[in-house]
């Protein structure tokens, strides 16, 4: 099978031929139809996440067809958990210390075939073509977890407007919330997409906010956005850091946190998040905006994502 492989962090992916993987007990073999490109893939490729399996097939938003049954399945970031630890046994499998992640410790979907543990795969809602379904699997469902952890906030700020935010703004509007999109100053492409999808305001993430926020979700990876978001937050509000990697957060005066403000992260997903979000997406209905690339152009897709040039989500079509 054709695959795009990472040999070492900091190097481009290489197009290679690999043997089709053999499914182990409890796994399915999928013919990959599409695989979303996520910022986390960049963190893996750039070596910001340590100890990746090498060589590695990246990609954790896999839309594939079970070669035995023909069923269309989605494979998310959470690839395996132990099922035994205190986190797994208390509905928090996203925190399992022995968890293994797709496209990081397990080969992912930048390839013509992939294997995945069946119990972590999701049936995908009808009505989404393969490429449009792919971003639901990480941008959508980890974003959805972040939105849930933001609480009942009415006035919601999104810091960074990429794949996750373009999905979550639609969910938040459908829930009756107000959304403010904070981007790089002058990022007109992201700002116009945000307004088109229901944000009521867009502007510079480091400039003044138009109103107090009840919660903020920081999708971007710049630590300086955390005190910026705190500055915009009403008392009792929450800043949720949605990314797996962030640059250091600069120190800030305690007064920004005072008033029962909260800063928290969101880690990974549970299967329950996936089931809830994939039932919700067609009800909203969430529409995903995707840029499609052939498998061999994975490096171009990653480069555009790194440069902040992708409108919506990038997807490899296999
Ligand atoms: Zn566990
Ligand atoms: Zn992801």
What's the short version?
It contains 8 helices and 17 strands. With about 325 residues, the chain is of the alpha/beta class. Helix 3 packs across helix 4 and helix 3 packs across helix 7.
The main pleated sheet reads as:
7 strands, mixed
The number of helical runs is 8
**CATH class placement of the largest domain:** Alpha Beta
Strand content: 25-35%
What pattern of helices and strands is seen along the backbone?
EEEHEEEEEEHHEHEHEEHEEHEHE
Helix content: 10-25%
Stretches where pLDDT is under 50 for at least 5 consecutive residues are: none
Shape by Cα distribution? globular
Radius of gyration: 19 Å
Q: According to CATH, what is the topology of the largest domain?
A: Quinone Oxidoreductase, Chain A, domain 1
Bound small molecules, deduplicated: zinc ion
Q: For the residues shown, what is the average pLDDT? A: 97
Based on the structure given, which CATH architecture of the largest domain is correct? Alpha-Beta Complex
Total number of domains:
2
Name of the CATH superfamily of the largest domain: Medium-chain alcohol dehydrogenases, catalytic domain
Q: Assembly type of the shown chains? A: single chain
How many β-strand runs? 17
Amino- and carboxy-terminal Cα gap: 11 Å
User: What is the structural class?
Assistant: alpha/beta
